[in-house]
Design brief:
Elements: H1 3-21, E1 28-33, H2 35-38, H3 49-66, E2 69-73, E3 82-85, H4 86-91, E4 96-97, H5 108-116, E5 120-123, E6 130-134, E7 147-150, E8 156-157, E9 160-167
Parallel strand pairs: 1-2, 1-6
Antiparallel strand pairs: 2-3, 3-5, 4-5, 6-9, 7-9, 8-9
Family: Belongs to the UPF0340 family.
Protein name: UPF0340 protein EII38_06425
InterPro entries: Antibiotic_NAT-like, DUF436
Length: 187
């Protein structure tokens, strides 16, 4: 796999989703990643630390420039806990759990997050404003309601299916209610 091309494609996808998701500085973005799927394999069967690091670094670089926080979802062996910066966990009053990710328990994305973040910790759950799912890892449990699906400009990264979610405030009221502009769909 060409890692330079992988980084380039990852940047294109994340820039597209950031623009269309209406996520703002200080908010949280979730990444679900199966490097096995990116490499053309089956989820959880062929994890690649190199692929994980290229993807997480590409995404972190773009998020950090915008003041958006990254949360990297782990696999089911860690109950889909998330790697975040300790300061984010403390500022947002997230419960820190005691576990260290490995390639086959947490996955390549979490291993990369622990390598690339300043002071990473694991938290059990989060409510993020948007997210990117590379390899059908099911990030929906960590995205705020109401979730809005976004179709990325590129639907595959390597061999992995790519989807994304944004969130918007709930519409409440009834026939007499008025609503502000939908920042995601612009209508």
């Amino acid at each position: 796999m060409n890692l330079v091309e992988l980084a380039k494609q990852t940047r294109a996808i994340i820039l597209d989703i950031l623009e269309r998701s209406a996520i703002r500085p200080g908010q949280i973005f979730v990444l679900g990643l199966s490097s096995s799927e990116v490499a053309g394999g089956v989820i959880g069967k062929n994890s690649s630390a190199e692929i994980g690091e290229v993807i997480v670094k590409s995404i972190l670089d773009e998020l950090n420039q915008r003041g958006i926080h990254l949360a990297v979802q782990g696999c089911e062996h860690l109950n889909r806990a998330l790697a975040v910066e300790r300061q984010v966990a403390e500022d947002k009053d997230l419960e820190i759990v005691n576990v260290l990710p490995s390639l086959h328990a947490g996955g390549s994305g979490q291993v990369a997050a622990f390598k690339l973040m300043k002071d990473p910790v694991e938290v059990e759950e989060i409510l993020a404003h948007a997210g990117l799912d590379i390899g059908d890892t099911s990030i929906g449990m960590h995205i705020k309601r109401v979730q809005v699906p976004l179709v990325p400009i590129q639907r595959e990264l390597g061999g992995a299916h790519v989807t994304a979610l944004a969130s918007r405030p709930k519409l409440i009221g009834g026939a007499r209610a008025n609503y502000g502009q939908d920042e995601i769909r612009k209508n």
